[in-house]
Amino acid sequence: MLLFPSWQDIAIRLLLTLIAGALIGFDRGSRGHAAGLRTTMLVCLAASIAMIQANILLSTGGKADDSFIRMDVMRLPLGILTGVGFIGAGTILKRENQVTGVTTASTLWIVTVIGLCFGGGQIALGIVATVLSVVTLSGLKLLDDRMTREHRAIVIVRQKPGEPYLDLDAAIRPQGYRAELRQSGKADEGGQARLWFEIVWKRSAIADNPQELLSLLDRTCHVESFRVTSEARH
Questions:
Q1: Cβ contact 201:178 at 8 Å
Q2: What radius of gyration do the chain's Cα atoms show?
Q3: pLDDT tens readout for residues 88-127
Q4: With a threshold of 0.70, does the pTM exceed it?
Q5: Phi, psi for residue 202 in degrees, rounded to 5
Q6: Domain with CATH 3.30.70.380 in the chain
Q7: Helix, strand or coil for residue 84?
């Protein structure tokens, strides 16, 4: 970190900051995520400006050794990281067993650190961090989509009086699905029973197709409702 950065140095830092934020933000925005192009650019720029401000304040000229006030300028970027932590926490949502926004929060965190790198004059480190971040978000997305993961859904089925016991697990297990009875009760005055089953299966994100499961259930029982409770995407 230069003790007396010139305006040319500051301009280069800010330009690289905007480029880094744009590269990462474009990837997120094109996929429809909350933290898109402008958000990541602003977060990255704010961190860079804070670090540049800390760099400028590093100068000790004109300060007496016995001065009563001693300023720790590094608290400024630490405060930026803390603030972004609150912003990132606000992007994480939990609906029952499904958690979304974790990758978005991580993206805001990494662009903040990249901004601090460029703002502090660590150009090479900032460039390497930007490249690795883009590769992780874009390149590894293909691998992430092909990873096998667990999916869950709740299905409510109706069973008419006199029908044999519905062994849904035995009916769908040969196709790679598992079913577990969670709740049962009367549906109406006609005496139809309502059964709540939890369906569990493992597929990759690109191979998963709930319509296939719905067709299988429709051939097996009388489906009243079907609701996915956990998915692979973040």
A1: yes
A2: 27
A3: 777 776 665 566 778 888 888 899 999 999 998 899 999 9
A4: no
A5: -120, 125
A6: 149-230
A7: helix
